[in-house]
Amino acid sequence: MINITRVDIGQREKDLVNQVLESGQLAQGKMVSEFESQFAKVSGAPYNSALSSGTTALVLALRALGIGPGDEVITSPFTFIATINAILETGATARLVDIEPDTFLMDATLLENAVNHRTKVIIPVHLFGQPCDMATTTAVAQAHGLRIVEDAAQAHGATFADQKVGSFDIAAFSFYATKNMTTGEGGAVTTTDVNVDETVRVLRNQGMKGRYEYVAQGFNYRMTDLQAAIGIGQLERLEATTANRATNANYLTSLLKNFPELITPVVREDRTHVWHQYTVRLSSDTGVTRDELIEKLRRRGVGSMAYYPYSVTEYPYYAARDDVVCDDDSVSRSCAASVLSLPIHAGLTKDDLDHIASACGSALAEKTE
Ligand SMILES: *Cc1c(COP(=O)(O)O)cnc(C)c1O
């Protein structure tokens, strides 16, 4: 079976974790600081704080800006639910703006119309590893005095117009086990704003500025030195694994061009994609549903997944909430019904990719048999 993800832990991570175990300092300490200083190379931002997850990174980014009840935060309805949950956790309202059908990214040309007097933040989600249109997003934010919190959970090292994701204003990264780099669970807030960084550091540690000097209602959002040790090893290989993913993605696209039923990924010219997921769309007139195709591929030894099977507004729980608002997510809904992610992780061989493509071909052909 060719799985959609593979967790890749090298000897370097094992050595560093052992070093932490032997040091007796397991919680946030020197390794976390070292990880933070090294992660700056990925984000291109001068400040960053390591945290317990990507979700807590989103929550603290918003809380550092003072976001709460009465405020609105704009984001995409086609995302992992953590983006929405982080907004709701602060008490703010999530306003969902529809996506582009070819990139699956929030359509920045719709932002202007979604802004109202309550809007405080835009969260562009760099879905699957491709950055959103940060030029238009930044222009709208500046015109209305809004802040930007990039959801960069899937986009470590990606760039828009040669600028790194994570360096536009504030950003949240995730190091969950299946992301492009991992600490098991973990996250970071990166920022160009020293005040935001200072507030995040206080909030992650019980609201303490100095020892037992409480200045805010904080919580425990800390990363451990054990997690940071894994992260340092992962960081050393990130560029290589990302290059590998890109090579695999491009090769798979060249093979899938033979099957007009599959719409291969579109990468905009002004950005670099880091291929967290390789996501195709099934065209509507193929005679096979997306879920049937997943099953047919599974029988051929290929693990594929629907990321994401529904637009956020299609979940009854979120549809019933009046703090999740959306005028129109028809593009998001139609993408959710037709997307399929295929394996392109760095552990795959050329033979694996050939097999994935031929499995797609035979699965699609099977409908007429
Ligand atoms: C993974 C992910 C998150 C949440 O990160 P965790 O580390 O799992 O909490 C947020 N947004 C997106 C788009 C993600 O893919």
Fill in the keyword field for this structure.
single chain, 369 residues, alpha/beta, 3-stranded antiparallel β-sheet, 12 helices, 39% helix, 14% strand, binds pyridoxal-5'-phosphate
Describe this structure in words.
By secondary structure, the protein is α/β, with parallel strands linked by helices. Helix content is 39%, strand content 14%. It is built from 12 helices and 14 strands. The protein has helices at 11-23, 30-43, 54-64, 82-89, 111-114, 134-144, 194-204, 225-256, 290-299, 316-319, 330-338, 350-365, and strands at residues 47-51, 72-75, 93-96, 119-122, 147-151, 159-160, 163-164, 170-174, 187-191, 262-263, 271-272, 278-282, 324-326, 339-342. The chain has an 8-stranded mixed β-sheet, with helices on both faces. A 3-stranded antiparallel β-sheet has the order 7-6-11, with no helix packed on it. A 3-stranded antiparallel β-sheet has the order 10-12-14. Strand 6 and strand 7 (163-164) form a beta hairpin. Helix 1 packs antiparallel against helix 8 (225-256), helix 3 (54-64) runs parallel beside helix 4 and helix 3 (54-64) crosses helix 7 (194-204). The protein is globular, with a radius of gyration of 21 Å. The two termini are 24 Å apart. The mean pLDDT is 97. The site of pyridoxal-5'-phosphate has 14 residues, from helix 3 and helix 4.
